[in-house]
Amino acid sequence: MNELLPKLSTVPEGIHSPSDYLPYAKERLPPEIWRYLEEGSANNVSLQANPHAFDSIHLIPRPLSDVRSGHTKITLFGQTLAHPVILAPLAYQQLYHPHGESASAMAASAQEGQSCVSSLASQTLEDIISAAGQPLWFQLYWQENRERTLKLLQRTIAAGYNAIIFTVDAPVKQATIQLPTTIQPINLDLPAPFPALLPQQSQVFNGWMAQAPRWEDLAWLRDQTSLPLLVKGILHSEDAEKVINLGCDGLVVSNHGGRVLDGTPASLACLPPIVSAISGRGKVLFDSGIRNGRDIYKAFALGADAVMVGRPYIWGLATAGALGVAHIIRLLRDELELTMALTGTASIQEITQEKIQISRNQNRN
Amino acid sequence: MNELLPKLSTVPEGIHSPSDYLPYAKERLPPEIWRYLEEGSANNVSLQANPHAFDSIHLIPRPLSDVRSGHTKITLFGQTLAHPVILAPLAYQQLYHPHGESASAMAASAQEGQSCVSSLASQTLEDIISAAGQPLWFQLYWQENRERTLKLLQRTIAAGYNAIIFTVDAPVKQATIQLPTTIQPINLDLPAPFPALLPQQSQVFNGWMAQAPRWEDLAWLRDQTSLPLLVKGILHSEDAEKVINLGCDGLVVSNHGGRVLDGTPASLACLPPIVSAISGRGKVLFDSGIRNGRDIYKAFALGADAVMVGRPYIWGLATAGALGVAHIIRLLRDELELTMALTGTASIQEITQEKIQISRNQNRN
Amino acid sequence: MNELLPKLSTVPEGIHSPSDYLPYAKERLPPEIWRYLEEGSANNVSLQANPHAFDSIHLIPRPLSDVRSGHTKITLFGQTLAHPVILAPLAYQQLYHPHGESASAMAASAQEGQSCVSSLASQTLEDIISAAGQPLWFQLYWQENRERTLKLLQRTIAAGYNAIIFTVDAPVKQATIQLPTTIQPINLDLPAPFPALLPQQSQVFNGWMAQAPRWEDLAWLRDQTSLPLLVKGILHSEDAEKVINLGCDGLVVSNHGGRVLDGTPASLACLPPIVSAISGRGKVLFDSGIRNGRDIYKAFALGADAVMVGRPYIWGLATAGALGVAHIIRLLRDELELTMALTGTASIQEITQEKIQISRNQNRN
Amino acid sequence: MNELLPKLSTVPEGIHSPSDYLPYAKERLPPEIWRYLEEGSANNVSLQANPHAFDSIHLIPRPLSDVRSGHTKITLFGQTLAHPVILAPLAYQQLYHPHGESASAMAASAQEGQSCVSSLASQTLEDIISAAGQPLWFQLYWQENRERTLKLLQRTIAAGYNAIIFTVDAPVKQATIQLPTTIQPINLDLPAPFPALLPQQSQVFNGWMAQAPRWEDLAWLRDQTSLPLLVKGILHSEDAEKVINLGCDGLVVSNHGGRVLDGTPASLACLPPIVSAISGRGKVLFDSGIRNGRDIYKAFALGADAVMVGRPYIWGLATAGALGVAHIIRLLRDELELTMALTGTASIQEITQEKIQISRNQNRN
Questions:
Q1: A178 — contact with chain B (CB < 8 Å)?
Q2: What is the pTM of this model?
Q3: For residue B88, which of A283, B58, B292, D265 sits 20 to 30 Å off, Cα-Cα?
Q4: Which part of the chain is the FMN hydroxy acid dehydrogenase domain (chains A, B, C, D) (predicted)?
């Protein structure tokens, strides 16, 4: 392992955009942790497709507009947020900084936004929410069966989490990093025993998928809580419809940052048909590929109700802890405000498809 | 020649996909043999087009589906195979490993699949089938005339081969490697004398093509055996129709791995019109460009009935003999199962065109 | 800072096109000034899109045409120019050469063309016009309010400037270079105090945009002068219409050389719809991306009435002062003449859309 | 100048295609001559577009076809050629080999084909035709006026040339190489004096274009000879029609190898509309971008009646003189025969558009 640089106690000079944090984070993380953070699955086709999808959306300046009353506020499930950037539920955040998930959640609160804590958090749910000083969202993974899942859900509710994001797109857990003994999924019970397989049986179909949730489990889960329930990892509009028809409050369009099934479309490409299928009957959040405030603007133009941001805030966490995360959020908000101002857009609601042009031919080199 | 590493007696660590074997194989083979394996023809336009064609096919995750009864079985010409991966008939396999074709065939049997032995095998047909312990398929090259071809066919049938794959797309044999004296097309008679040409005559038209099979020879061949007979090397749907109308049992869509005529379309691009032209009157196998289980899924989505895999299993053979080949097959099957599970697909028959999205604009960089 | 080469007193040998000046200029400028000149905003998507957009426009040679009477003259606001190349209003030109804006304006006059002086000129308006020996155009930035703006406008008119180019696409001033104390916006008063913001207020919306001009300010500005008034930084055809409907004499289609909002379309892509919307009711100038005479031809084929050229003439200025700028202009005119001759075009008016072919698929690599 | 390798007296080993000669030629030529041979104009957009255009045309193998009677013969203006490869009129061939144009012409004759001698040949017209031992084609440049042009034409006819290729796409002569004193346009008179220009006049319009031929000059030229007359450098179908309507025997679709006007379409892209406009009323030759026999096949599929090949035969000339040129021609013919055989095509006339597929999306990387 290389000699790592200490975390910074102030934000670095000369930062203009979240990606300016990238080299600082890379320097401060062991190579295997950096790889774990940045990797996609297989050939990285989907990983690379995510940011590239934004390049075919063009922004049209509208000078001389009156945007003096402009702001980035949104209201989501009764809570008013100063901006629409929600921290995505990344696992094991103590890998990146000793203050882990608490630092991220604290930063989100300080920036008057929201964060979503992973089932695979490396700190206790109670400690994180206490650090944040406000209710948070919880990302729920299915715990092999209903009993175990319900137990985790009830603990979450008791701890004061106020929305459940149920992630369904990663039923097979393949470790790609060896966790240090000090960093573990501290909020989970030991996993249930893996199904005993006959020689002819498949590890995938008869093993992992036997422990994966199904639509009837989602229906059951809906009945276990009156909190807002969103399903994360939806790319097909028929699935989006099913989620809403089962009484959920919304969903997160996501290809898991290109980390699960290589060859999915860019997450952004799946957003418009899902927005159209839902037509306002639930909230549609967008995740996977956002790297700056212009990307946020484009996701709203294609119909998102809020966005989740992942790797970029971890760059800030790895560099300067809570201070770095708060800075990343502020940079994203500043870039979003600037994009809105230059395009003559005074509120998130005004960011519509008419504000953009979609090109099929212009590629970044 | 550089110092070569010995073959492995166990499979390497850290392998997640067939392409992880590539550097091991490259290290273990002399450069001229590696080049012979990997080369395409001319400018490699078709060689490169093959894998790239898969990148424009997108997979759509369908979480929460019930795939607990999932499997990859197919039935082909009366034989049930545990998975649809058939080893393509690559020539002179002792170039890659001393155990040659026998090792590959043995591995295919152990994985409950099928392999196809080349006319240019470096071991006797009888030894290979004996190593395999089950009937195999035989790839037949035209032997300059009917008499010589019939002789080879009859020996094949006597040896217990149970399907004939007649390759028609490479009528001109241009050696691109100097075979060592110990590795020869051991199952073939010495070639018939090349036609004596007048000064004005063309080596291509009056030489090679005078020894090449024609449609009437295929009709004749069909009458010589009641075994399943498939024609390999078909890219045009009119030719596919002719093959079926002559009573053949199927065909293999293939551009010979980009090794014959540079500038053909990607093999995958030719699959849908041929499937449509045949509409179930024969089996359509797909060959050329498959590198992982997601590619197999995509070929089925475009209508294939089974797939042939070539270079990847040779990577395994060169690295670790039969063990390596078996591992490659298992990796392909695991990846196929995972792709099916994540897309909510419980059987090969369920892999239809509705499962994918075809994009004309997204390119891998 | 590296050791810089002195400016040349003659033009370099072996120059065939403006871009041949680029390495000379780069050698002669400190790296941070070179970066400031060449940079775009954020990821440079728009910066790179500008020149690439020209590559999809093809020129069709029309040999054997009679072009013996050919010329490149245009008439603009009553003035006849020998060619349609107008020097764009780049800021702080003493950064590049001690003779600054005066050298550029002098060169434009000597080449019987026109130049536009920036609000951010590093020499006095009076000195520049005196060096030029002819009336010039003035690029006006809004000076935070009407009173301050009017003061600058009146000084401009008094100095003898004969057209006003009002730039509206860069309301937020973010310094990306530290100016030396000897180089300052010498024609401007100290900026008005930045609005005092409440804790909840946004620097963008409540700060910068409160000091930015709005449509009603443009209407007011139109009433303050009878000089030709053009608005620079228009990319949307509705805005182009508004500009004309407010009585302005024209506009400049520009994305500010890719320096303001990253992700705008290429400037060239916005030209045709604006030309179509205006349909002759005002002049449409084109800016952003022109690097040679063929590009000028293409802009006219898409409907421009004149073109502005930016970075290329600064390469000449940095290399050889007024002599270099004059040479750049002459090179552009020569290339334009040659393109006209080879395409059978005897006048600027004959450069129509029928002269070109637009391809959506051919990219420069 | 670097130490040059001597020319070879036998052809190199291991050559499979004309481009295999490229490194040999590059080694044997001084860098400035290599640059002169290979260069395009300006940014090389058209130079690179020429070969890339072929990549979007796909060849479809048609195995099992009967092509035993196949051949590559064509008949052109009464002459039967063994193959359709005509050597393009490249200038100053003694730059590449001391045997110059004579070597090229001799090789073309030996291969039973045809070659076209440039107005800018470095050997006398009489010596070249004598070396060839058969009538050749002559490429005519306009000699500033009719009298001088007629004088050159009459000398050509007297020398026994049997077809005139009148090149019209390069009216401006800009030297890009300093010719050694021993290599000169030996067949031309000293150029006529360049027009004296007034200060206001344009070197392009009033100078070069005053000495360039016009349509009426072509009509006049047609009347001066009964030999076949073709116009070279036509890309627009209206011009192709005019050429035929003036009584010419055909034309050469060419963008001058990308050497004149940068930004023209690929020559291949202009072929189909011209073929369609002419519809058999004259011969359509194709030039610019052919590098192998598959390219020749594709040009015929798009309607060409014969092809001109340029730079590739110079690679052979520079490497091994007449022997090298003859080898290049033979390689092209062999590749063409192989392509015909594999696509089931027994004669040049059978190469039609149905033999190919045109793809807009598949690019070579």
A1: no
A2: 0.95
A3: B58
A4: 10-361
